[in-house]
Amino acid sequence: MKVNIYGLILLNAFRVYQTRIHEKTEKIFPEFKNISKYVIYMYVLLQAGIIILLLSVNFKQVDIVNNMTSKYSLEIIMLKVFLELILLRNIGKFSFPKKIQMIYGFLPSIFFILCSTFKHFFTLILIQLICLQLLKPVTFLILFVISCSMIFIFLYAKMQLFKFTEGLMSVILYSVSIILFIFVLQEILKIINIDLELTLRHIITFCSMAVLTVLTLLCLTYLFKNVNQTNYILKKTHSRRYAKIYIFAVVLLTLILLLSEMFELVGSIQYPLVLMSFLLITLLTKMAFINLLTLETYGYFLFYLKSAETPLQENIIKNIQMNNYLILLPVLLIHLTYFLIAGDPVFTGILLALYILDIKVDELVVYITRKVVKKNELPNLFIHTKKGLSTVLLIAFIPVALISFTIKSNQPVSASIGISIFVSLLLLLACVFLIARIWKQSFFKDLFK
Amino acid sequence: MLKIKDLSYNIEETAILEHLSFSIPEGKVTAIVGPNGVGKTTTVQLLASMLQSKNESVEKLLKEKKVIYLDLEYLVFDELTAEEFIQLIADYNKKTKQEIQALLEYFEPLMVKSFLSTKLKGLSLGQKQKLIILTGFLSRADVLIFDEPFNGLDYKSEKYFKKILADNEYGFTIIITTHNFIDLETYTAKCIVMQNKANLIEIPNKAVDLYKQDLFKYLELEQEY
Fold first, then answer.
1. Which terminus has fewer CB within 10 Å in chain A: N or C?
2. Rounded distance, CA B193 to CA B212, Å?
3. Beta strand pairing status for B199-204 and B190-196?
């Protein structure tokens, strides 16, 4: 049987994914490496199952879906275009040799790119299938043709080395997202019948929060430059990553603010939600800057530090502590603004206590579980898990408990409960401080015994 | 003859090539030689439209001829074996089994068959070089461009590849860039010596001794006769 060119491209992609899964499994779960070769078959079966499910279920028979699709068909179309543009932009990030079509031809090269970015390509297929179910056949057909043409034109332009491709794609993407945002906003305003003054106030709060974010970022950079003890240098690449997390925090807080104005239930749990947002953003920041926030990422270098002089060891521990406090400081400030605007001193106190407690518990966990000896343990998720442990625990104990209490009792958190939580947090903090101090003293001495 | 006139190329404000004109004999092998950084690779990449150019003669060349630039970075199918890769290239170029077999026999002194079952990611530099050369010969292109094709080849393979170039049984117009001057006179019909970004000298291979003498003279190299 003659295996054609597309079959071979597909075979290559299949083997690439199989190898990737095998390597990942070997790294994270070495005990399962022998069965990792079967994972890809399960993955293929799962995806085939999703496609069959989407094709066999008729969403139009469900009344709510039917009403929604007839009412919001334009929004669905816009959302489809928006998602396709994002996916296409991600596909476009895949790097391939210049003028690859010169060797393999245009269509095989496109097929190769799509196979190599299969996750995005598969999502594109899913979007088409969902739209097939939701939209009218004629509308879907027209949109499908437009989508296919869009993919081909974009990839053709990229392969022909047209310089405008990515810029143009971004412009279209932003335009579509702005239009979509206006649509959604219009609908929200229609539903809740919100007055203009209130919306304006929220927008002003949003803007002032964003300004505060920028200011805290600048302030942080200044601090890093002037505090001699710190080993952290805020580079351009860091700032971009940092800014992304920050914007997310601002958006999240604004959302909480808006939703709590709109819905009574959200209003009653808004403070625990802000605490949750703080811890969530803290977790994201920790994941992004893990290399600067824990001693364990020093890896083998810690072997040398073990034999270093005590003042140097203390200085390194201090640097890491400083990094923790400084990097998370802007996160704290943004959330603090929320409580200061609301004028709630109890939750301000809880937030401050959480900020310190989170860092201290992290330190304690690292000091207690300090044995990292295997090479393959260094780059894996283990350190991340350990570093985020305190935050996850705090999310589970404080905001979640408060939310469940509020929902059960159907009343907002009273001042007395807030104060008692604040006091318990302070007591906990004192305990953690004490234990961490004891463990710290022997950290380098007992390291890698 | 493929004629290139007034070829220039800039990166931002810096001129890389300035008003170069030269010709390439069709169905023969031409070598582009010169010191590092003089613009050899840029020139061949412009001829293959790897770099954007508004030069009319290049546009005409690309319109009339199928030009391909062969580089190791095109071996993108890491998880295919060399045999499967050859099959893929042959499929795209609509080559029959007999044609593939004949070409593999022809390339046998390069020991291609010894690594047919090895995946591309496991090939050595020399083996990859052989595979990319084979890819060129499997194509239906008119002009093949090889950038430093002798890199990574062992002595015997280098010698045999030079013999393939000298015979040029398949009648391709072949352009190579190289710093390898051993036996250059035996397989090239013409040599283009790039002296700097604005000057080049064309040396046709009319008389072997004179050809090599001229080549070494313009490259300012010492030669033992």
1. N
2. 12
3. antiparallel
CB-CB neighbours of A185 under 10 Å: 11
What's B23-69 look like in SS3?
Answer: EECCCCEEEEECCCCCCHHHHHHHHCCCCCCCCHHHHHHHHHCCEEE
Residues of B in contact with A109 (CB under 8 A): none
Whether the CB-CB separation of A270 and A341 falls below 8 Å is answered with: no
**Residues of chain A positioned with their CB less than 8 A from the CB of B68:** 102-103
The 3-state DSSP class for residue A289 equals coil
pLDDT bracket for residue A28 (50, 70, 90): confident
Helices (H), A289-309: 290-293, 301-306
Question: Residue B175's beta-bridge partner residues?
Answer: B30, B145
Report yes or no: A12 at the B interface, CB cutoff 8 Å.
yes
ipTM summary value = 0.86
pTM assigned to the model: 0.64
> What is the CA angle B164-B165-B171, rounded to 5?
95
Q: How many helices (H) and strands (E) does chain B have?
A: 8, 8
pLDDT top residue among B150 and A65: B150
Amino acid at B216: F
Distance (Å, rounded) from C-alpha A335 to C-alpha A446?
38
Q: How far is CA A110 from the centre of its chain?
A: 30
Q: Are A337 and A373 in contact (CB under 8 A)?
A: no
B84 touches chain A (CB under 8 A): yes
Alpha-carbon gap, residue B205 to B108, rounded angstroms: 29
B99 interfaces chain A, CB cutoff of 8 Å: no
C-alpha gyration radius of chain B: 18
Residue A134's closest CA among A70, A50, A51, A47?
A70
